[in-house]
Amino acid sequence: RKEDATLFSQLKGFFGTSRVAIRKLVLAQVLPIPNELVVEADEFMSTIAAAIGGAIVLDRPLTHYRLHTNNLFQFRSGDKASLLRKYTVMDCLAREVPPRLASCGIPREAIDAILEPIRVDAERMRLMLEGGKPWQTFAVERASFSLDYADVSPAYRLFKAFVLALTLMVPPRRFYQFRSWYSTTKLRRMRALLGEPTTSAPIVQAGMESGN
Fold this sequence. Notes:
Shape: globular
Number of strands: 2
Order of helices and strands: HHHHHHEHHEH
Structural class: mainly alpha
Distance between the termini: 30 Å
Strand content: under 5%
Helix content: 55-70%
Strand order of the largest sheet: 1-2
């Protein structure tokens, strides 16, 4: 169902690297993995495995994810080599996952729900690397906003309208340079004054509300 696919796309971060266990019988149906996926092979495996056999998210943490300078997927902004590597694998996922899901009998609308966040991320990275038209930045940032949040305050919506207007006034590369600078400054803390939006992912939001 589309609803299940949307929920999976919101929670797929819980199925990465050491956080996922897949039955051997299911994994045999998932393989082979595209050679281009030097990273993000876990997302490919988890997505197809969930389509074949379903998935369960445990309600307690069992692992720690360490961030360091040699992370292949999580990296400092401005690292063009890492950004290009990440874009390559995201673009590969956007091409390779749909036909595999279709072969599992997943309906088109559910596939679109799963792939939309991947396509948005890939397009955002393409604009960072190659540039493009301001309206393309506007489209990808508006789509990302719709995917990320279930409810926002009027003040935060006004703030986001300002950000979207900015996407139409500057080239994509310049906009993302400004966005990267903003995320590393104390200015981002001012966003809390507008009322933090409610995230789309239910488990993530529950953790935030309980202080976890």
